Amino acid sequence: MLQIKEGFSAYLVHAIRVTFDLQERNLATLLNASISTLERLMREQKPLDSVASERLDRIAAVAHLADAVFESREAAAQWMSKPNKALGGSTPIMLCETEIGAKQVRRVLQALEWGGAA
Questions:
Q1: Using CA atoms, how far apart are residues 73 and 113, in angstroms rounded to an integer?
Q2: 80 neighbors 66 (Cβ within 8 angstroms)
Q3: Cα separation values, 20 from 15, 27, 56, Å
Q4: CA-CA-CA-CA torsion for 24, 28, 34, 40, nearest 10 degrees?
Q5: How far is it, in rounded angstroms, from Cα 31 to Cα 38?
C-alpha cells in the first residue's frame, strides 16, 4: 500500500508494454497518463503517480493469477493480450484499467482453473 502511494518506478511501464505488446494509446489509457508524461518520468527517474501505480499493482495481481492458471508466463501474457469472448470481446489486460474489469478477468481465470470454458 505504501509503495502505491509513493509510486512505482516508471521503468515498469516499459515492462508492461513489452510483456503485453501494448500500443501507446492503450498503455496511456490503461495507466491514465499520456505517453509524453510516462516518458518524462522515466527520463527523470521519477515515480509514477498513485493512480498509475495502483493500476500497475492490479495488472500484476491479475497477471500473477493468469500465470498460475496457465502455468506459463508466456501463455498468460498471450491470453491477457487477446480479445476474449467471455469478456465481451475485450482484452483482459485492458479490463484491468478498473477494479470492476479486473474482477471480471479474475472470474474468467477462476472458471478456467476449475475447468470451465472461457
A1: 15
A2: yes
A3: 8, 10, 13
A4: -70
A5: 9
pTM listed for this prediction: 0.89
Give, as one character, the DSSP assignment of residue 87. G
Cα separation, 73 vs 76, whole angstroms = 5
Q: Per-residue pLDDT for the chain (118 aa), expressed as one digit of tens each?
A: 778 889 999 999 999 999 999 999 999 999 999 999 999 999 999 999 999 999 999 999 999 999 999 999 999 999 999 999 999 999 999 999 999 999 999 999 999 988 765 5
